[in-house]
Amino acid sequence: MTPSSLVRVSVTFLVARDSVAELRRAFTDNFAPAISAQQGFLECLLLAATEGGDAPRLRLDITFRTEDERLAWVQSDLHDKVFEPMAALASSWHVDHLVLA
């Protein structure tokens, strides 16, 4: 594995204040255990923005060794089962797909 093969995906969720705790629980109880068992998985963090905005922003940062391993996870039924409930708690969300420069 070379460092340039690492793939990071950041998912930013805009959530209502009363949904933040529920999204954190969904991450801790379901998403994190499921993704951490995947081949090529390296890291997954749920981060909270510390500045501005009416709706809280939570960012999910995920790192895999390779794009193929990340795609295998994203295309799995388990991914849908654990990601969709988190996405449903957000008023909107978007994905930034990054590789190490």
Automatic annotation (TrEMBL):
<protein>
    <recommendedName>
        <fullName>ABM domain-containing protein</fullName>
    </recommendedName>
</protein>
<dbReference type="InterPro" id="IPR011008">
    <property type="entry name" value="Dimeric_a/b-barrel"/>
</dbReference>
